C-alpha cells in the first residue's frame, strides 16, 4: 500500500514533468512503475470542467490523469516529494484527519501544509543541511514551493577526515545487562541532564558572572546541583505527603454535583484551588501527569473570576471566546450558550446570542437583577427565573437526560435538560430537601442542593474580595500553604527547600559567590518545576515517589520490628533448649541401655564362672515347678510329725537342695539327682501309697526324672567340668543330643538289641529314647514310636517289679499276684508298680497280723491323713482324690480283677472268709454304688488286694498303718491297730476332720439303698449287702465289725467315676488284654456284670422301652412315702398313684419283677421296666456313649443327650459335686 | 527494648541451667568412671576365679562369686543413679521449655494485640501471622515431642503424652507457641515404626519396655485408652509370662 502510494506520487511527478515538458522529473525519480493507482493521498482535485479555465489559468495548471480521473495541479503549489521513509508518518496523519479537507480544491495548499510536521518546517529554513542523505519531504516541497524555477539542490557530501568513526570500543555482542545501582552510587553522580533551556540560562548567568569577574559555573556543577535539589524536594514531598490526607472521599463534581467516580470519568482536583470536577464535565479527556490545574488557576491564578452568566463565584470556570469567564454549569444550562469544542468544553461561545430578555430576568433565589443570565422553570406557565448556580445552590431539580432521537438523517443523541423551580419540582417541596431526602432522587437533589451551596458563593458587587468561598471547600490534595497561594504562582506545588538544606546541598560544590548563585539556581529550579507542572525533573525520582509513599507508611512501626527481633531471639533460645532436651533424652536412653548391658554382662559372667550352677539351678527350678502342691518345697515339720525321723534318717527337700546348690555343694547333675531321689524315696517310705503324698512323690519322681535326664544331657553336651563347675576347655559331644534317627529308636525298641544290658540300663536307655523322641517334631512316626517306647518301658518296669516281687515272695508270704496288668500308660504303670510294692510290704505284715494292715486304699478325698505337711497341706479337691482311680480302668475290669484276686487269695488266708463273703458283694454292688452313693469324693482304689480291715479306718486313721509299720509292731493285733487308729484319730483330729465332712452323707444313701433291695427282695446277696450297710453305718463309731464292713467300704471308695479323668479309650485297651490273660473265670464275671448288678432305687439307669432307644432314667422306690423324700437334699418326685397301680398288672404281664423308673425327659415320664431293660448308667463311659449314640434319628439322639445331661446334673446335685460337668465328657 | 517482664524473669531463671546441666553431666561422668573401675575389678576377679576354682573349696567359691556379685550390684546402683540423673536433667530442661513455650505464647499474643491496636497490619505482621500458623502446624509435632518427654521422665506418672491438661495445666499452651524446629538427625526414634515422635504418643506401662513410646496410629489407637496399656510386644511377653505362671 505504502509502496503503491509512493509509486503514485512518483507518477504524479512524472506526469507533471511530462505535462510541463520541463526537466523537473529529477526530483525523486526513485521507485519503479506504479501500475495501479489507489487514490492518491493528495487527492488532486477533480476540476469540474476543463473548458471553464481561462488560458492563463490553464497555463498555471498541470493536468494529471490518475486512474482515469483528471487531476489539475497548480504549478505554484508545492508538491511534496514523499520518500518511503516518510510514508508511515504520512499514512497515520492522513488517516487521522484530513480526509474531508482534502476535498477542497482551493485549499489544496493548506491541506498539504498540514501534512508536514513541525520539524519538517522548522528544518526547512536551514536548507543547506538538506543536501545530506536525509531527505525530508517537507523540505523538498518547501524548496520546490519557494523557488520553482531554482534548480533542485544537488546532493553534496564531503568527507570529514577528523572524525574517527570507531572510537567506541566494540561492545560484547551477547547482551547488555542492567545492574541496579545502589543508592550511594546514585548519590554520587548527577542524574540530571541539561536541556537547551538550562544551557541558555547557564550561559546567561555565566555571562553575568564573568562580567562581574567571577568564574563561570560549569554545566557539570549545574547538573549536580539541580540533581541535589530534586532529591531534596522528593524527600521533602515525601515527608509532607505523610501528613497529607489522601483523596477526599466525598468529593463531588461541582458541575454535575455528582460524586460518582468511574475509572473513565474520574473526579479531578485542581492542585491549587482544589476544585473537583469530572473529566467529562470539565473537558479533560486525558488525565495529565503531574499536577492539574483548573483553567482559572492556570490562567489567572491571582484573580478571582466572575462568571458572566451568574453572580456567583467559585466553581468550575471556562473562558468564553471573548476572554471573559463563565461557569461550565451556566454554559451547559443556558440554551443559547454552547462550547466551541465539545470535547475540551472550551471556549464558551454564544454569549452574544443570549437574548436581552434573558439578561433581564430576575433570579427568584438571589433576587439580583441584571446580573447574569437566568433560566426559567421548565414547567409550562411558570416563569420563575433563576441562575443556574443559584439553582444548584438551592438544590432545585435540575436534570440532564440523554435523549435519543431518530430523525430522517439518522439517530442523534441530544441531551434534554429540565430544571424546575422549587414549586414545580416533581418530587414535592424542594426547599427542605435535605431533611426529607428519603427517596434516592430526593437524596440526590438535596445532596446537590447542599453541595451547590457549598460550591458557590455570591460574588460581592465589587470584586475586591478574594476567593474566600473557596476556603469552604475541602482540603485539597496538595493544598498546603493555602493562604498565600492566590497571590503567587503555584510555587507550593514544588516543595520548598529550607535554606539550611540548601546550604548543605552546595557544600560539596566549589563555586564563587556561592550563595548568590545558589539563590538564583534555586529560583530557576523552582520556575522550571512550575513550568513542568511541578513534575520532578528526574523521572526516576518521580516514579519512586509513588512507591515510597506506600512503603514508607510501614516504617513507623520500628517498635514492631524490634519486637519481632526479640521474638526471633526467644525462638532461638527455644530451639537451643530443644536441642538440649534432645541431647539429654539421648543420654537417658544411653544410660538405660548401659544398665541393661550391665545386667547382661553379669548374666554372662555368671554363666562363664559357674555354668554348672546355672544349669543346676534351672533344673531345680523346673523340679520345683513340677511340685505344684509344694509338698516338697519345705523341710518336713517335725513338730507335726514327730515320728518322721523314725522312718527317715536323711530328710531332704527342695529348699535344702537349693541351699546346698547355692553353697556349691553340687558339682554335677548326678549330685542333684541323688538328693532328689532321696527326697522322693523319703516321701515314699514314710507315706503309705494311697496317700496323696505318696502319689505326688511318684509323680514327681516321674516328671523329675525326665527333667534330670534332660539336665544330664545338657550337661553332657555343654561339657561341664565337675570339679570346677566350669566349662570344659573344649566342648564336646555337642551333637549327642537330639540327634538320633528313627533307626536308633527302632533298634532300641527291639529287645534283642539290648539283651546285653541290665534291666535298669535298658530302662534308662528306653527312657532316654523316649525323651528324645518326645522332643522331636510331631509326626505319625513319632507318635507311634512314643507309644511303642512306652509299652516297652512299662513292660520292662513290670519285669523289674516281678523280679523284685519274686525275690520278696520268696522271702515273705508268697503272695504274688499273677494278674498284673500290663500298664498302658507310663505314669499309671508307675503308680501301679508302687502300689504293688506297697502291697508287698503290706502283705508281709498281713501274713501274721491279718487283714487289717493292707490299707492300700487311699482315703484320698480329704486332706492327707498323714504326716507331712498335715495342717498346711491344702485340701485336695475331690477330683484329684479320684485321680488314681480314674486312671484305672472302669468298673468292669476293676471288678473282674478283684474277684479274680480274691478268688486266688482265698484259701489259707486269714481274711479268707472275709474275702469270700466280700468277694461277690463288690461285684454285685459295685456298679451301683457310685450312683446311689452321695460320696462327694469317690476315692479310687486301683487294684488293691483284699486286705481286710475297714477302709475307713485306714482312711481316717492312717496312723494305724504307720503304727503297724513301726518296728516291733509288725505283729500287732487287729484290735490294737484299731485302737491305734482311734488314738491316731483322736490325736490328730485336724487332718482327719476334713475327711469326715463328706462322710455324713453316707448313711442316707446307704439306708435307702439297703432298704431298697431288701424291701424289693432283690435276690442277689441281700444279706451281705445289708450287713455291710450296717457295718458302714456303724463303722464310724464301731470298729469291731470291720471284717464285714470292709468290702463294703471298699466298694464305696473304689467305685471310680472315671470319666472325670477322661481317658476312657486308653484305659480300655489294656483291660481287654487283661481279660484275655485272665482266663475263664474272669470272662464269666465280666459277662455277668452287666445284667447281674443289682439296681437300687435312686440309681441312674439306661432304660430301654420298646420303640425307643435307651433313655436315661432313675429307679424309684415305689414304696417311698407319699410325702416324698429328699435324696441328699434333692427332692425325688413321688410316683403318681395311677403309675403305682399299674405295677401289679405289668408285673403279671411280664412275669417278673419290674422296676419303677422315672425318665429324665422333659415330662418326667414313669415306666415299669424289667431288670433286663435297665442298664446302670454313669459307670462306664463307653457304655454311656454307646447308649447316647443308640438313637437312630438325630432328634432322638439329641433328646437322649439332653436327658443324659439332666441325669448327670441330678447326679451332681445329689453328690454335691459341682466340679463334675457331664458336658465335658460328652 | 523493654519487653514483658516475665521474659526477663525467664532469662533469670534460665541463667542457672547451663551450670546445672554441667553439674549433672559431670556427676554422670563420674559415675561412669566408677562403673568402669568396677568392671575392671570384676574382670580381674573373674580371671582369678577361673584360675583358682579347682583349688577352691565350695565356701571359698561362694565367697569369691559373692564378691563379683557385690561388684555388680554396685555397678547396677551406679547405672540406676545415672539413669535417674538423666531423667532429672531432662525434666529440668523440659520444665524450662514448657515455661518458655507458655511465655512465648503470651508474648506473641501481646505482640499481636499491639499490632491490632496500631490499627493496621503491616505485611510483616501478616508474615508473622503466617509464620505463626506454620508454627502451629509444626507445633503439633514438636508439642507432641515436648509433652511426651515431660511425661517420659516420670514413667510412674503415666500415660499419654499429649494430654494437654495432664501435667501442665498451669501453663496454658497457646497454639502458636512453638516454632518450626529443625529436625535433628540424632533425634531418638520410638514406636514400632522407628520414627521420631510426632502427634499423640502413648507410653507402654511396662517400665522395662524397650520402646516406651508409640504413635497412636501405629498401635491402632484413636483415643487414649483407659487403664493400663501395654505395647504389642509387652502384651505378648506378659501373656507368655502369665501362662508360665499358671503352669
Principal-axis shape of chain B = flat
Widest sheet, order of strands of chain B: 1-2
Total number of beta strands of chain B:
2
What structural class do you assign from the helix and strand content of chain B?
mainly alpha
Q: Flag low-confidence runs of chain A.
A: 1-48, 97-147, 428-449, 461-492, 731-739, 809-1092, 1218-1226
Q: Helix coverage percent of residues of chain B?
A: 55-70%
- Biggest β-sheet: strands ordered side by side in the sheet of chain A: 22-21-18-17-23
Please outline the major beta sheet of chain B.
2 strands, antiparallel
Which range best describes the helical content of chain A: under 10%, 10-25%, 25-40%, 40-55%, 55-70% or over 70%?
40-55%
Q: Count of helical segments of chain B?
A: 6
- Mean of the pLDDT scores of chain B? 72
Strand content of the residues of chain A, in percent? 5-15%
**Low-pLDDT windows of residues of chain B:** 120-180
Structure classification of chain A: alpha+beta
Give a concise summary.
The complex is a heterodimer of chains A (about 1250) and B (about 250). Chain A contains 46 helices and 23 strands.
What does this structure look like?
- The complex is a heterodimer of chains A (1226) and B (247).
- With 1226 residues, chain A is of the alpha+beta class.
- Helix content of chain A is 49%, strand content 8%.
- Chain A is built from 46 helices and 23 strands.
- In chain A, the strands form ten sheets. Chain A has a five-stranded antiparallel β-sheet. Chain A has a two-stranded antiparallel ribbon with strand order 1-2.
- In chain A, strand 15 (720-721) and strand 16 form a beta hairpin.
- In chain A, 39% of the residues are buried.
- Chain B has six helices and two strands; from the N terminus they run αααααββα.
- Chain B is flat.
- The chains are: A alpha+beta (1226), B mainly alpha (247).
- At the A-B interface, helix 19 of A face helix 2, helix 3 and helix 4 of B.
Amino acid at each position: 500500500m505504502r509502496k503503491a502510494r509512493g509509486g503514485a506520487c512518483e507518477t504524479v511527478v512524472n506526469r507533471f514533468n511530462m505535462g510541463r515538458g520541463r526537466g523537473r522529473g529529477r526530483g525523486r525519480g526513485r521507485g519503479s512503475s506504479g501500475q495501479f493507482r489507489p487514490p492518491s493521498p493528495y487527492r488532486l482535485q477533480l476540476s469540474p470542467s476543463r473548458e471553464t479555465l481561462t488560458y492563463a489559468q490553464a497555463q498555471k495548471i498541470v493536468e494529471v490523469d490518475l486512474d482515469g480521473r483528471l487531476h489539475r495541479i497548480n504549478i505554484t503549489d508545492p508538491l511534496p516529494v514523499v520518500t518511503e521513509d516518510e510514508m508511515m508518518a504520512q499514512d497515520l496523519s492522513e488517516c487521522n484527519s484530513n480526509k474531508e479537507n482534502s476535498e477542497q480544491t482551493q485549499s489544496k495548499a493548506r491541506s498539504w501544509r498540514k501534512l508536514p510536521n513541525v520539524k519538517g518546517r522548522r528544518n526547512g529554513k536551514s536548507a543547506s543541511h538538506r543536501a545530506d542523505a536525509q531527505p525530508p519531504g517537507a523540505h523538498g516541497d518547501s524548496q520546490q514551493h519557494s523557488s520553482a524555477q531554482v534548480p533542485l539542490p544537488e546532493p553534496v557530501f564531503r568527507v570529514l577526515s577528523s572524525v574517527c568513526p570507531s572510537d567506541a570500543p566494540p561492545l560484547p555482542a551477547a547482551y547488555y545487562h542492567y545492574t541496579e545501582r545502589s543508592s550511594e552510587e546514585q548519590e554520587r553522580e548527577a542524574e540530571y541532564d541539561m536541556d537547551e533551556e538550562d544551557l541558555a540560562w547557564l550561559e546567561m548567568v555565566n555571562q553575568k558572572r564573568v562580567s562581574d569577574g567571577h568564574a563561570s559555573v560549569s554545566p557539570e556543577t549545574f547538573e549536580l546541583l539541580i540533581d541535589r535539589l530534586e532529591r531534596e524536594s522528593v524527600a521533602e514531598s515525601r515527608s509532607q505527603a505523610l501528613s497529607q490526607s489522601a483523596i477526599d472521599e466525598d468529593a463531588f463534581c461541582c458541575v454535575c454535583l455528582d460524586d460518582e467516580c468511574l475509572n473513565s470519568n474520574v473526579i479531578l482536583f485542581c492542585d491549587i484551588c482544589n476544585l473537583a470536577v469530572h473529566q467529562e464535565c470539565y473537558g479533560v479527556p486525558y488525565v495529565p501527569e503531574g499536577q492539574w490545574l483548573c483553567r482559572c488557576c492556570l490562567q489567572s491564578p491571582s484573580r478571582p473570576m466572575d462568571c458572566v452568566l451568574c453572580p456567583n463565584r467559585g466553581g468550575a470556570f471556562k473562558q468564553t471566546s471573548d476572554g471573559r469567564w463563565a461557569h461550565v454549569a451556566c454554559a451547559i444550562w443556558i440554551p443559547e450558550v454552547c462550547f466551541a469544542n465539545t470535547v475540551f468544553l472550551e471556549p464558551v461561545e454564544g454569549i452574544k446570542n443570549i437574548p436581552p430578555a434573558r439578561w433581564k430576568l430576575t433570579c427568584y433565589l438571589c433576587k439580583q437583577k441584571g446580573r447574569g443570565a437566568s433560566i426559567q422553570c421548565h414547567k409550562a406557565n411558570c416563569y420563575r427565573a433563576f441562575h443556574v448556580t443559584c439553582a444548584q445552590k438551592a438544590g432545585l431539580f435540575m436534570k440532564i437526560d440523554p435523549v435519543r432521537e431518530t430523525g430522517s438523517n439518522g439517530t442523534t443523541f441530544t441531551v434534554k435538560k429540565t430544571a424546575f423551580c422549587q414549586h414545580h419540582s416533581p418530587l414535592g417541596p424542594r426547599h427542605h430537601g435535605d431533611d426529607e431526602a428519603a427517596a434516592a432522587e430526593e437524596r440526590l437533589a438535596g445532596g446537590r442542593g447542599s453541595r451547590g451551596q457549598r460550591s458557590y458563593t455570591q460574588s460581592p458587587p465589587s470584586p475586591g474580595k478574594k476567593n474566600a468561598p473557596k476556603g469552604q471547600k475541602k482540603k485539597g490534595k496538595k493544598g498546603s500553604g493555602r493562604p498565600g497561594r492566590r497571590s503567587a504562582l503555584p510555587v507550593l506545588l514544588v516543595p520548598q527547600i529550607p535554606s539550611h538544606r540548601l546550604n548543605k546541598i552546595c557544600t560539596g560544590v566549589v563555586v564563587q559567590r556561592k550563595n548568590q548563585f545558589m539563590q538564583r539556581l534555586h529560583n530557576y529550579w523552582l520556575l522550571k518545576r512550575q513550568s513542568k507542572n511541578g513534575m520532578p525533573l528526574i523521572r526516576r525520582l518521580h516514579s519512586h515517589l509513588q512507591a515510597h509513599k506506600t512503603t514508607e507508611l510501614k516504617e513507623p512501626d520500628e517498635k514492631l520490628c524490634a519486637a519481632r527481633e526479640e521474638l526471633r531471639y526467644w525462638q532461638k533460645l527455644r530451639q537451643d533448649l530443644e536441642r538440649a532436651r534432645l541431647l539429654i533424652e539421648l543420654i537417658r536412653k544411653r544410660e538405660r541401655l548401659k544398665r541393661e548391658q550391665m545386667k547382661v554382662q553379669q548374666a554372662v559372667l555368671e554363666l562363664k564362672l559357674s555354668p554348672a550352677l546355672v544349669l543346676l539351678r534351672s533344673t531345680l527350678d523346673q523340679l520345683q515347678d513340677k511340685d505344684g502342691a509344694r509338698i516338697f518345697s519345705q523341710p518336713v515339720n517335725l513338730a507335726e510329725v514327730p515320728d518322721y525321723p523314725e522312718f527317715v534318717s536323711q530328710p531332704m527337700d527342695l529348699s535344702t537342695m537349693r541351699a546346698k546348690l547355692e553353697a556349691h555343694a553340687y558339682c554335677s547333675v548326678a549330685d542333684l539327682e541323688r538328693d532328689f531321689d532321696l527326697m522322693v524315696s523319703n516321701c515314699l517310705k514314710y507315706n503309705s501309697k494311697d496317700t496323696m503324698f505318696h502319689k505326688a512323690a511318684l509323680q514327681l519322681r516321674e516328671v523329675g526324672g525326665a527333667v534330670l535326664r534332660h539336665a544330664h544331657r545338657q550337661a553332657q553336651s555343654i561339657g561341664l567340668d565337675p570339679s570346677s563347675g566350669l566349662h570344659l576347655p573344649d566342648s564336646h559331644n555337642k551333637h549327642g543330643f537330639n540327634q538320633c534317627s528313627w533307626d536308633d529308636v527302632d533298634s532300641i525298641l527291639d529287645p534283642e538289641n539290648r539283651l546285653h544290658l541290665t534291666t535298669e540300663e535298658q530302662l534308662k536307655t528306653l527312657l532316654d529314647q523316649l525323651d528324645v523322641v518326645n522332643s522331636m517334631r510331631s509326626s505319625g512316626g513319632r507318635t507311634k514310636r512314643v507309644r511303642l517306647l512306652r509299652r516297652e518301658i512299662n513292660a520292662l518296669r513290670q519285669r523289674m517289679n516281678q523280679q523284685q516281687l519274686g525275690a520278696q515272695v520268696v522271702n515273705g508270704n508268697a503272695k504274688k499276684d499273677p494278674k498284673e496288668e500290663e500298664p498302658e500308660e507310663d505314669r499309671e504303670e508307675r503308680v501301679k508298680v508302687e502300689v504293688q510294692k506297697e502291697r508287698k510290704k503290706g502283705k508281709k505284715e498281713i501274713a501274721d497280723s491279718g487283714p487289717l494292715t493292707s490299707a492300700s486304699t487311699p482315703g484320698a478325698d480329704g486332706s492327707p491323713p498323714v504326716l507331712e505337711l498335715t495342717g498346711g497341706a491344702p485340701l485336695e479337691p475331690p477330683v484329684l482324690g479320684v485321680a488314681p482311680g480314674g486312671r484305672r480302668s472302669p468298673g468292669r475290669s476293676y471288678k473282674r480283677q478283684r474277684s479274680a484276686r480274691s478268688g486266688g487269695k482265698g484259701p489259707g488266708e486269714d481274711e479268707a472268709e472275709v474275702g469270700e463273703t466280700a468277694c461277690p458283694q463288690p461285684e454285685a454292688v459295685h456298679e451301683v454304688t457310685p450312683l446311689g452313693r452321695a460320696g462327694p469324693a469317690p476315692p479310687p482304689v486301683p487294684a488293691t488286694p483284699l486286705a481286710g480291715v475297714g477302709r475307713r479306718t485306714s482312711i481316717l486313721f492312717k496312723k494305724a498303718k504307720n503304727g503297724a509299720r513301726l518296728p516291733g509292731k509288725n505283729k500287732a493285733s487287729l484290735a490294737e491297730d484299731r485302737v491305734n487308729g482311734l488314738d491316731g484319730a483322736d490325736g490328730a483330729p485336724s487332718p482327719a476332720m476334713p475327711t469326715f465332712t463328706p462322710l455324713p452323707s453316707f448313711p442316707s444313701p446307704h439306708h435307702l439303698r439297703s432298704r431298697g433291695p431288701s424291701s424289693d427282695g432283690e435276690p442277689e446277696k441281700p444279706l451281705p449287702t445289708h450287713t455291710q450297710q450296717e457295718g458302714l453305718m456303724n463303722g464310724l463309731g464301731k470298729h469291731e465289725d470291720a471284717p464285714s464292713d470292709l468290702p463294703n467300704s471298699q466298694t464305696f471308695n473304689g467305685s471310680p467315676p472315671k470319666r472325670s479323668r477322661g481317658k476312657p479309650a486308653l484305659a480300655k485297651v489294656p483291660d481287654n488284654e487283661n481279660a484275655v490273660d485272665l482266663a475263664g473265670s474272669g470272662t464269666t464275671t465280666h459277662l455277668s456284670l452287666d445284667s447281674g448288678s443289682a439296681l437300687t432305687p435312686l440309681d441312674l439307669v439306661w432304660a430301654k422301652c420298646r420303640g425307643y432307644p435307651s433313655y436315661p432314667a432313675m429307679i424309684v422306690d415305689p414304696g417311698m412315702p407319699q410325702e416324698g423324700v429328699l435324696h441328699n437334699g434333692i427332692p425325688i418326685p413321688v410316683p403318681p398313684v395311677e403309675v403305682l397301680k399299674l405295677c401289679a398288672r405289668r408285673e403279671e404281664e411280664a412275669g417278673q419283677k419290674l422296676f419303677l423308673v422315672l425318665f429324665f425327659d422333659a415330662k418326667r415320664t414313669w415306666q415299669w421296666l424289667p431288670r433286663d431293660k435297665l442298664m446302670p448308667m454313669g459307670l462306664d463311659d463307653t457304655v454311656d456313649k454307646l447308649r447316647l449314640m443308640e438313637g437312630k434319628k438325630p432328634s432322638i439322639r439329641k433328646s437322649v443327650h439332653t436327658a443324659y445331661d439332666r441325669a448327670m446334673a441330678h447326679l451332681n446335685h445329689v453328690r454335691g459335686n459341682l466340679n463334675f460337668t457331664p458336658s465335658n465328657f460328652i | 527494648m523493654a519487653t514483658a517482664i516475665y521474659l526477663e524473669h525467664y532469662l533469670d531463671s534460665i541463667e542457672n541451667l547451663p551450670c546445672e546441666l554441667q553439674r549433672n553431666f559431670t556427676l554422670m561422668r563420674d559415675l561412669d568412671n566408677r562403673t568402669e573401675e568396677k568392671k575392671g575389678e570384676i574382670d580381674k576377679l573373674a580371671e582369678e576365679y577361673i584360675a583358682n576354682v579347682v583349688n577352691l573349696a565350695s565356701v571359698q567359691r561362694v565367697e569369691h562369686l559373692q564378691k563379683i556379685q557385690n561388684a555388680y550390684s554396685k555397678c547396677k546402683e551406679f547405672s540406676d543413679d545415672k539413669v535417674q540423673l538423666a531423667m532429672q536433667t531432662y525434666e529440668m530442661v523440659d520444665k524450662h521449655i514448657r515455661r518458655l513455650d507458655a511465655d512465648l505464647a503470651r508474648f506473641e499474643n501481646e505482640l499481636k494485640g499491639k499490632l491490632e491496636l496500631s490499627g493496621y497490619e503491616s505485611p510483616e505482621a501478616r508474615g508473622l501471622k503466617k509464620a505463626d500458623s506454620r508454627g502451629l502446624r509444626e507445633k503439633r509435632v514438636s508439642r507432641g515431642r515436648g509433652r511426651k518427654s515431660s511425661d517420659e521422665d516420670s514413667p510412674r506418672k503415666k500415660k499419654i503424652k499429649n494430654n494437654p491438661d495432664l501435667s501442665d495445666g498451669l501453663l496454658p499452651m497457646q497454639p502458636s507457641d512453638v516454632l518450626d524446629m529443625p529436625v535433628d538427625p540424632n533425634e531418638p526414634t520410638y514406636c514400632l515404626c522407628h520414627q521420631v515422635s510426632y502427634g499423640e504418643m502413648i507410653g507402654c506401662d511396662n517400665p522395662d519396655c524397650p520402646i516406651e513410646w508409640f504413635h497412636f496410629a501405629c498401635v491402632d489407637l484413636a483415643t487414649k485408652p483407659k487403664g493400663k496399656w501395654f505395647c504389642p510386644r509387652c502384651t505378648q511377653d506378659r501373656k507368655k509370662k502369665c501362662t508360665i505362671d499358671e503352669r
